[in-house]
Design brief:
Blueprint (H helix, E strand, L loop, with lengths): L12 H23 L6 E5 L5 H9 L4 E6 L2 H10 L5 E5 L12 E7 L8 H11 E12 L7 H13 L8 H4 L5 H10 L3 E14 L2 H5 L8 H8 L2 H14 L8 E13 L2
Parallel strand pairs: 1-2, 1-4, 2-3, 4-5
Antiparallel strand pairs: 5-7, 6-7
Helix pairs in contact: 1-2, 5-10
Length: about 270
């Protein structure tokens, strides 16, 4: 395992929910509405995490059925506990080898997961394979290259000021293709048509420093994985650096923004 990927811990669902899931839950309804899928369709979700997009699909798209897969047992357990709907089924699975028949779904989607799949091109080919002709494929990822996730950018700015080697772990360096041109290119390379891209922006407001800092100490994701790997004194220095540099409102809240790129296409 590389020094980079060893920080990508994806098992503790509650820890991920505190770090990223709660913000994905804000993006997900906007993404589902933008997809504009008809009611009564069979959906597939690839990389369901803790169920943020699953819940939005069930609440807003009125699907006939939803199959959500993830490679993490921990995430699936959290998703099942949070989403209680008989239309939904949560299964262990690999995005690069979907265990479904060809043309068996009408909509295939993914939220904040595709960039962590080792072969994202293969994952899109698999989503295309299992989606019926004229169906919809869509996903969203954070705008890492544009610094669109301000709370994450602030963390890495402080971390690299103290530890220049941390620069190699930052998402903007690891996922440079997470731009409108790069993401629409992925769709077209997979043979998909009518490709569209849209920015979705949501507020990320932390009531105080502890609410901001604690998720980084839990180890779920690249930045938290890095933080959890630090020795005690190094972690305290990082916390102090962030306390000094994060913007604060008069009430002590840390009010930032997050931007995701949403992409959709049609299967021919």
């Amino acid at each position: 395992m590389s020094a980079v990927t060893r920080h990508d811990a994806w098992q503790a669902g509650d820890s991920y929910e505190a770090y990223m899931g709660r913000w994905s839950r804000q993006v997900a309804p906007l993404f589902v509405d933008w997809l504009g899928a008809a009611d009564g369709l069979d959906w597939l979700e690839v990389g369901c995490g803790t169920g943020a997009l699953s819940a939005a699909i069930l609440a807003r798209a009125r699907p006939k059925s939803l199959i959500s897969i993830d490679s993490s047992d921990g995430f699936l357990a959290t998703a099942r506990a949070r989403v209680d709907d008989r239309r939904a089924e949560f299964l262990l699975g690999d995005a690069q080898a979907l265990p479904f028949e060809a043309a068996s779904r009408e909509v295939a989607v993914s939220a904040l997961a595709l960039n962590f799949v080792p072969d994202r091109h293969q994952a899109l080919l698999e989503m295309k394979r299992v989606t019926r002709r004229g169906g919809t494929i869509g996903f969203y990822v954070w705008d890492y290259p544009g610094g669109g996730v301000e709370f994450m950018r602030a963390f890495w700015t402080a971390a690299t000021a103290l530890d220049p080697a941390a620069q190699e772990l930052t998402e903007d360096r690891r996922f440079p293709y997470c731009t409108p041109a790069g993401l629409t290119g992925l769709m077209r390379d997979a043979g998909l048509s009518e490709v569209e891209c849209m920015a979705i922006e949501v507020p990320t407001v932390f009531p105080g420093f502890e609410d901001y800092w604690r998720p980084f100490t839990l180890g779920a994701g690249p930045a938290p994985g890095y933080c959890a790997s630090l020795a005690g004194e190094a972690r305290l220095r990082l916390a102090d650096k962030l306390r000094e540099t994060l913007p604060r409102r008069a009430d002590g809240a840390i009010a930032l923004q997050a931007r995701a790129w949403a992409v959709k296409a049609t299967t021919a």
